[in-house]
Amino acid sequence: MKKSSEIRSFFLLYNKGYPCIYRQIVIFKHMKKIYLFIIITFLSLAHFSQGNETGLNFSLLFGKEKLELDKEFYSNSDTLQFQTIRFYVSNVKLYKQNKETVLLKKYHLVDLENPTSLFIPFQNENNWDSVSFEIGIDSVTNSNGAMGGDLDPTNGMYWTWNSGYINVKIEGKSINCGARKNKFQFHLGGYQSPFATLQKINTPINNNTILVDFETLFSNTNLQTTHTIMSPGKNAVDFSHLFSSSFNTTK
Amino acid sequence: MKKKQVFIVVFSLFLFAFTCKDYKEMVPSYFPEPSYNFKKNPLDSNIIKIGQALFYDPILSKDNTISCSSCHSPYNAFAHTDHDLSHGINDSIGTRNAPALFNLAWQSSFMWDGSINHLDMQALAPINHTGEMAETTKNVVDKLNNSSIYPNLFQTAFGTKQITGELMLKAFAQFQLTLVSSNSKYDEVKKGNQKFTSQEKNGYQLFKNNCNTCHQEPLFSTYQFANNGLPIDSTLMDYGKGAITKKSKDSLLFKIPSLRNLSYSYPYMHDGRFNKLKEVINHYTQGIDDYSKVSSELQQTITLSSNEKVDLIAFLKTLNDKKFVFDKKHQFPKSILLPKKD
Asked: Best of B38, B121, B177 to disrupt the A interface by mutation (most A CBs within 10 Å)?
């Protein structure tokens, strides 16, 4: 209702003072502006509604600091910088007093580069007691063929030389890193036994927030020797275990 | 002008009309159930058309020089005759022989080492391989979105101009699914339309006694993996499936290829080491030196007289499907990729 009246007044404004015969021409001339106006109206409406939205937050941290790409972080006499942090969460379920259960999202790609991906909106309920999910993509989905959205292979989270999703991608550099140009690359995946990397998480939550502390992960990793994991195997399984232990929501 | 265009579109729709019903007609009654799940990607003539255009379009490679058909030529049953190892961007040479492409709906893993687990995902491998097309999936999708041809094709087929990785891969798979080879002389005999010569008949019996366990009819492969006793090529050091699964039991296992269309798809074996059928048969009869790691199916020595070898080859040649190899329906889609300018 509000929108249509706004558009009408917009038309009236532009038609003012012009003879009837020219009106169509004038409207046509200003069509672009009208479209722009409509788009801006929609966007601002969407913006306001998002402000009130509740949802599940992923809070990515390095110790007590908020994790950011390309920023320097200090740990164990090492200086670290991250270029890429992406991981899949799947079968995200919310619980209240161990009774009510809601499947919030089947597959979700968290990408630090894209802040909106750190938030999965939900309605009706403001506070849930606990959450369960898997880090990564399950074996059935891994062999299901082409899929879209968060599972689209254009997201750079799919291995092309050996079918399967990359569950977790962590890339960056550190002074102590033993790799070429001090760059570490962890592409964790693999869905087939005995190298399945899917990790199950089941944990209580406060304020609908899941904390992921990368300092925990890297204080337990010697980047001098462990810096490159790019294929399914024992190293990927071990590092996936380590990564799952940095999901700690009760701090 | 407009009317003419509409007419051409409608007419070509009829021409390319291809539905699931047609697919069933292409598949003879003695073929097993396909393993591809058509429910998740139902065949549609407009989608197949996109897949066909993509297959022949070098836009997939980084410098727009290499298409799928560069190494999978229709005239070679979609293999690459005369090249032992596949070729790629900047004249690079790969490590394996480009396999023939047909009857893919009956296969559940792809590549000589089984590294690809679904037909939909297969195209990603050559696109992203630095020695083949050297592109990224995202770049290819971006190029397609910016092309003058593809957004309209996707609009007609999927109802959206927005091309995604998912839709591109589904289109790829659909075209490849239509590559069904089921019109060889062997098939005509099976259908009761033709008869084997006495030599072919004898060869068929020899085939059943010696080869059918791995190259099971009517597809002429179980599409499983085996060690057929080839000594490793020290210049390639290719351990096949073992390098992918990191399991010692999979070391030196390669996918069993179909024997259909073998006159069109030489050279043979995963590294194209044999140029002639005779060499292949000689390998199985007297070429295996070390039986310790050879798959169980081959542990019993195959003994064939020179006459029997000739008869066996006569039968194997009945598996050539000329109709499939020269079928215009699968060839370069001129009307899409090289449209006539008014």
From this structure: B121
